[in-house]
Write a structure and sequence with these properties.
219 residues; alpha/beta; TIM Barrel; 9-stranded mixed sheet; 34% helix; 18% strand
């Protein structure tokens, strides 16, 4: 069962920061999950929210700042994070902004072709089905994960359509019938965000392929 650090090691270090990813690697994570937004100068940057309000000292939309300005706020570019990780674990890239999709695919494709990363170390996921369709059209070889917080059944139908690699359901949605259906169709299952001992026990009973957690060392 793979240990996947949510936004790095969010339970211990500020989310989506280089320090958080470094800590997740030190904790022995098999993979890390991160979120990508788009800067004013069209650079994929690693932050969850549409605004910088919650996680920095500044205010405003991510898209109103350049990548350099965001860097000064502690927000790294996707390239900087991948360079830091350097194949020590896989990096699940969740695209939050449709407009960032083409540039993310370009970056991931370059890391695979030029830096010889294995494609399975750079899966791309999203709640937005249009994002995943676009990724599929731009580079059919990439590994795709379908995120859902409302219907695993709908995610499964879409995963079949785009020939995805995995389904990432909100863990409370897990039920025996749908998990069996996912496994029957040979998709990996990576539930999120599982933090409490009783929830970890609940999820592990389904024999999922990996767990996304703020505390990956407790999986």
């Amino acid at each position: 069962m793979l240990k996947i650090g949510h936004r790095g090691a969010k339970g211990y270090v500020a989310e989506n920061t280089l320090a958080s990813f470094e800590h997740a690697i030190k904790l022995g994570c098999d993979g890390i999950e991160l979120d990508v937004q788009y800067s004013k100068d069209e650079v994929p940057v690693v932050i969850h929210d549409v605004t910088v309000n919650r996680t920095t000292s500044a205010k405003g939309k991510v898209s109103d700042f350049t990548a350099a300005e965001l860097s000064n706020l502690g927000i790294s570019s996707l390239v900087d994070v991948l360079t830091l990780v350097d194949e020590k674990c896989f990096v699940n890239i969740e695209i939050k902004n449709l407009f960032a999709t083409a540039e993310v695919v370009k970056i991931v494709s370059e890391f695979i072709k030029v830096r010889n990363w294995n494609p399975n170390l750079l899966p791309i996921s999203s709640f937005d089905f249009e994002v995943l369709r676009k990724v599929k059209n731009l580079n059919p070889q990439l590994f795709l994960g379908v995120l859902t917080e409302d219907s695993i059944a709908k995610a499964l139908i879409f995963a079949l359509e785009i020939k995805a690699y995995a389904i990432h359901p909100e863990f409370k949605l897990l039920k025996n019938e749908i998990v069996l259906e996912i496994k029957k169709n040979k998709f990996k299952i990576f539930p999120f965000t599982v933090n409490h001992p009783e929830d970890l026990t609940f999820v592990k009973n389904f024999l999922v392929d990996g767990i996304i957690s703020d505390f990956p060392d407790k999986i």
